[in-house]
């Protein structure tokens, strides 16, 4: 059990990435935040994702750096709720893959 917990909180820089982040880093960050907000109904939860986005920007971080660090505690210590912080850090590959699929679909419609 302890080994699994340690692996879950370890930096993931050594794990091969199977996703690519699109476009400008700050624009991708904003799109990522909006995606998270679209997954919740509660306005407090939406605000918490906006807070995570603001903390990311203030600290000159981007999705690549958040993924590499794998540190939801960083966001929790700055007032982001635990669940939001965990999703903010964990869901980057899921969003990037979905976003890439959306981009491909738009491109195919343009052809």
Describe it for me?
With 111 residues, this protein is mainly α. It has one domain. Helices cover 70% and strands 0% of the residues. It contains seven helices and no strands. Helix 2 (25-38) runs antiparallel to helix 3. The longest helix has 19 residues, at 92-110. The chain is globular. The chain starts with a helix and ends with a helix. The model is unreliable at 104-111 (pLDDT under 50).
Oligomeric grouping of the chains = single chain
Helix content: over 70%
Structural class: mainly alpha
Overall, the morphology is globular
What's the domain count? 1
Report how far apart the termini are.
51 Å
Mean pLDDT: 82
Keywords for this entry:
mainly alpha; 7 helices; 111 residues; globular
Outline of the structure:
The chain is mostly helical and 111 residues long. The chain is built from 7 helices and no strands. Helix content is 70%, strand content 0%.
Map the helices and strands.
Layout: H1 2-9, H2 25-38, H3 43-58, H4 63-69, H5 72-76, H6 82-90, H7 92-110
């Amino acid at each position: 059990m302890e080994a699994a917990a340690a692996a879950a909180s370890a930096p993931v820089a050594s794990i091969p990435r199977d996703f690519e982040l699109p476009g400008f880093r700050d624009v991708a960050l904003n799109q990522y935040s909006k995606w998270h907000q679209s997954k919740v109904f509660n306005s407090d939860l939406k605000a918490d994702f906006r807070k995570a986005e603001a903390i990311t920007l203030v600290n000159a971080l981007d999705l690549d750096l958040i993924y590499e660090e794998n540190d939801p505690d960083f966001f929790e210590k700055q007032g982001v709720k635990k669940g939001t912080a965990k999703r903010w850090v964990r869901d980057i590959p899921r969003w990037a893959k979905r976003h890439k699929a959306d981009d491909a679909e738009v491109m195919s419609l343009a052809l």
